[in-house]
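G., the chain you wanted modeled:
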Amino acid sequence: MKEAMDILRITPIFENLEERDLSRIAACGVRKAYRKSDLILMEEETGSVLFVIISGKVKVVRIGEDGREIILSIMSSGEVFGEMALLDGESRSASVIALEDSDLFMIHGKDFVSLLHEYPAISVSLLKQLTQRLRKADALIKSLSLKDAFHRIGYVLLQFAEERGKIRQGRVEIEDLPVQQEIANMAGTTRETVSRTLTKMEKMKLIDVKNNNVSILNYDVFREKFS
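Predicted structure as tokens:
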């Protein structure tokens, strides 16, 4: 329960609550472990649970008309998902799959809705989170529809840099980048195209690639080029 409270404490929608309130929320949920590649949620199924990521990473995906997986986002520790179906009563809008072994904290939908009524701060924080996701979704749609593969891949890297990049010696470093196939699924292209594009970006002195870590050499230039 302590670990669950520690995660709830840094989860944006719960961070303004008192300790006793966090304890109450932790007591009404359960933890569940998922292995890498496990299906956590399926698109179109009925939603009844809110998920908080304690550890690990998950990907939110939809399947295109051509059968190709399209990654909408990648989420990690402290983030929540599954709330939309609880709020509007509709079926799940996407599937969620574990990118690595992950430990999740689950709150039943009825309990979560009760919390929204009892704690207005949660509702406000949730609204901010949904607004941020909507803005990101709009930007992603624009990127996928208006730009070529080179710029789409650059946009995906830019999103990773903004979400979890670390500034070191004037560079922005992105650690533990997803495998190239996952990047391809986010950019609406192929793994081979991602590989060629990363090599091209290195030759252009835009990035430096070492294993699954990428350094953006000049963030301002990169952002201007791909935003």
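The chain has a mean pLDDT of 86.

Shout if anything looks off.
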